[in-house]
Design a protein that fits this description.
Blueprint: H1 20-32, E1 37-41, E2 48-52, E3 59-61, E4 75-77, H2 80-94, E5 99-102, E6 109-112
Antiparallel strand pairs: 1-2, 3-4, 5-6
Amino acid sequence: MKSITCFSKSGNPLSVFMTEREAQGSADYERGQGRNLYPYQCKKCGLWHLAPEESRVDFRENACSCTDSRGNGKRLYATREDAEKAMETSEEARNVSLSVYPCPDGGGWHLTHSAGFYF
C-alpha cells in the first residue's frame, strides 16, 4: 500500500488515524487538554485526521441538483458563513480565487471558480 502523508496549511504532517473511533478518542483526549478538535475523513488519503472545531463547516454532498463543470455534484453549505469559511480554507490551501453564491435550488450556498458571483 502506498503511503500518503497529508500536511497542515503550515506544512506540518497531520496525525493519521485508521478509524473514526480512533480519531474521536484522540479528539476527546485533546478536549480534556483544552483543545477543541473534531475528526474528519480525508479525501486525499481516506484515513482520519483532526481539525480545530472552529474550522468545521456544515455541508452536504450532492444535496441539490447543481453540478460543477465536470458534472460532479456540488457541496451545499448550510449557511453563507459556512461557505465563506470553506472558501477561505480552499483559497489558502489551493491558492485559487473562489466566490460564494446561493444555490438556485434554494436551501444553501455553493462555491464557484467562476467570476461574477458576488453577493
